[in-house]
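debug: dumping io for the single-chain case to check the tokenizer round-trip. Nothing else runs in this session.
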Amino acid sequence: MHVPDGFINAPVSAVAGVVAAGAVAVSLRGARRELDGRTAPLAGLVAAFIFAVQMLNFPVAAGTSGHLLGGALAAILVGPYTGVLCIAVVLLMQGILFADGGLTALGVNITVMGVVTVVVAYALFRGLTGVLPRTRRSTTAAAFVAALVSVPAAAVAFTALYAIGGTTDVPLGKVLTAMVGVHVLIGIGEAAITALTVGAVLAVRPDLVHGAQGLAAPLKLRVDGALVDVPAAPAAEPAPAARGRSTRGVWATGLVAALLLAGFVSYYASASPDGLEKVAADKGIDENVKEHGAADSPLADYGVKDISDARLSGGLAGVIGVGVTVAVGSGVFWAVHRRRRPEPVAGALGSD
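debug: decoded output
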């Protein structure tokens, strides 16, 4: 759902940019409470993983494909504030390096794909986990539903922006019906990817899933046919046992998975236009689309310039994208963590 330049007029794009900048500023402050020395590098990995999975377009209808938006996945794994920053980093890398998503539309994309998906998904996820049994299965199911709903919610948000600042004269009802219809189908794929990923992390390291921390009752894992309690821990301060466990294995496994997805599996992704591109072509929204400002980038369209072999070009571009995203993301999140105010030491204040 990467909105290119020219779909939304300049004034509305500028307002969306201000909204996105405000959301990022708020998220930078909020992420200080979510990140610690263990989770800061993992947040960079989440951004890189989302970048990789977004390269894997999957077919949803005749001549139409979809891809992960990632807001629900990021919010559940690393927290809503950090989740917004993850999506913003991904969109920035895609726009600058790969000419994917307009540069003047960056604010629109962050608002629609980052802020809306994170807010809708995390609010729904927390609501569901508050009423469902505290088990791994229920938590995974809540992630599935939250991700499913977040995608058509983003489609509605785009339609609202188009209603205010669309550059073509297309009946709003037709745009809304087409956008929501195709993105409900894409939402099913989003939900499956999100649930599988969250479930996999819960199975091995539930202490690293932000959305599973601080629940009213202990999270339960099934071990040898019996349900075993997993102690809940506040998001900002992991339990002592969890704090001492290394995250290097998880980080390395996640990075290898992202590199394989972007560098190898992406070659087999669907070449059909995604939901927004298909609706835009069918309804005429793309009549005033503008050439991307980074169209001459050596990595434009997810290929390396001057490499003729499509498999090698796309795979190398994906590997570079994962590497740059994990480096930039980890740097951003580490800097945010370093700015976190240290907790006062007990007895340090008020003593004579």
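debug: round-trip ok. The beta strands are 58-61, 64-66, 219-223, 226-230.
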